[in-house]
Hints:
single chain; 238 residues; mainly alpha; 0% strand; globular
Amino acid sequence: MGRGLRSELLKLRTTRSTWGVLAGAVAIAVVAFVAPGENAIAELSEPFHEQQSTFFIGFLLRVILLVLGVRAVTDEWRYGTLTPSLLALPRRGAFLVLKTAATAGAGLAITALATGAMVLTAAAYAQVNDVTLGEVSFHSLAGMALSGGLWAAIGVGLGAMLKSQLLATVVGIVWLMGVDDMLRERLGDLAVYLPGQAGLALVTAPGAAGLTRAIVTLLAYALVMLVAGVMLTNRRDV
Length: 238
């Protein structure tokens, strides 16, 4: 199992899309604070979890981390590397579990680096503009980093379920950019259990209670989709 996990991590490290996602995540974290100009300056004194820039970063990062997870598994079918991967580790369930663990770890690391870039950019921007930086909530920063790992894990499950990279990517983006918000308006208080809303709550949660609920909710989605992905993969020809 240890060799299998190292193999999955090696695949991620040597894939250009992983580094592209890292570059994109850091760029989003920097530009979100610099580009808005005066609006961003006015918000810098507010708590981090209440700033629009933080919300915008979380909103976009969940999409690119989901796509990272989708690509991590669907590239195996697309480029024909699934066969040698399963020859090395014949148990498909174990293969997908290791794939999920490695990709979630990469997603967490990428988001943690983007979070660090966000804080440094905000601090520098506040100093340049002679503004006192608002409260930096540990729960919000930890939630943002954790959300990256969980979204990547959900992406792996979605990719394993649908197999098609294009279909899984489109379904994920359409859900996060449209369907989730439409359902939020209809579900009222229950909307906090939607995946997209739980993911954003990880970024904007001011305290431990909201953070815990969001983590449990997203983790449940990741586990359900992984189990479904394993069941469908076991039925497919390779």
